[in-house]
Amino acid sequence: MKIIVLSRNSQLYSTAALVQAAEKLGHDVRVVDYLRCYMNITSRKPMIYVDGEKILADAIIPRIAAKHTFYGNAVVRQFEMMGVYTLNDSVAIARSRDKLRALQIMAKRGVGLPVTGFAHHTDATTKLIEMCGGAPLVIKLLEGTQGVGVVLAETANAAESVIEAFKGLNANILVQEFIKEAEGADIRCIVIGGKVVASMKRQAPKGEFRSNLHRGGSAEKVSISPAERAVAISAAKAMGLNVAGVDLLRSNHGPVVMEVNSSPGLEGIQQSSKKDVAKMIIEFIEKAVSKPSRPTDK
Questions:
Q1: Are 197 and 189 spatial neighbours (Cβ–Cβ below 8 Å)?
Q2: pLDDT tens track for 78-125
Q3: Which of 51, 42, 46 is nearest to 84 (CA)?
Q4: Whether the model pTM is above 0.90
């Protein structure tokens, strides 16, 4: 089977792991920089090119950076038009990348979430703070990723100042309750095909509430409860993602979802869980592509 990994950097751990896993299973795999792709959008024969070469595949694995979601997702849609199997489709990626939309979809499906407020006018600031249980609370930029644009406001006055500052910059923000009992830790679950295949606990360093590994957080293998497993699966299903990284917090009122990632990093989860998640992803693609025949240019 011919597999393309849509990634800007073939040296990234996750990209390299997927390539290695695909090659070990006997597939023809290639990394393509999606920003270098250009498209012929036609109803008769849609096509994608890179440097004048037609790009053909049986399946693609989108690894689209958040800042390039618009163009990257356009490339994914083009492959869909060409009848190519995509691990996560463009609609699911778009859902997961829009934090507000993702929360609204999950809320509708009954997925456990932190109390979250959203408003346009600063006149609603006090009500937002009250709605989320008062300070301390978390304020998030909708466009932020990997912990960037996430602020913990310790007091109501601090929260008002941060909210007004963001609004002064015409930034869209979410206000969420602070889950103190999580003690700076979250659970990352990898869901593949509706099953949690690996999980890890990420712990924020001392003095930090964000547990992102690239911010100094540590990771370790963790056993999750049936409730946590069910919430992670429900969150991925609500987004329509075949492969997802679901971030949970352990709250006093059960597991709550912080975020669903359509291109979860593999380094931390593979090293902490000792599971070959990249291989599991390729095996999922093998089962999903019923007839893994090599495409021809006809």
A1: no
A2: 999 999 999 999 999 999 999 999 999 999 999 999 999 888 777 778
A3: 46
A4: no
Number of domains in the chain: 3
Both 220 and 158 in a single domain? Answer: no
Residue 284 DSSP SS3: helix
Task: Give the domain range for residue 243.
Answer: 181-281
Q: If DSSP states are collapsed to H, E and C, what string results for 44-56?
A: CCCEEEECCEECC
Q: Are strands 243-251 and 254-261 parallel, antiparallel or unpaired?
A: antiparallel
Would you call 218 helix, strand, or coil by DSSP?
Answer: strand
Query: Are 233 and 263 in a shared domain?
Result: yes
CATH number of the domain to which 228 belongs = 3.30.470.20
Domain boundary (159, 178, 197) is at 178
Asked if 78 and 46 count as a contact pair (C-beta separation under 8 A), the reply is: yes
Contact status, residue 18 vs residue 6, Cβ threshold 8 Å? no
Q: Is 158 helix (H, G, I), strand (E, B) or coil?
A: helix
Residue 126, domain CATH: 3.30.1490.20
Over residues 221-234, the pLDDT tens digits come to 889 999 999 999 99
Of all residues in the chain, what percent are helix, strand and coil, respectively (each to 5)? 35, 25, 35
- Contact predicate 15/4, CB 8 Å: no
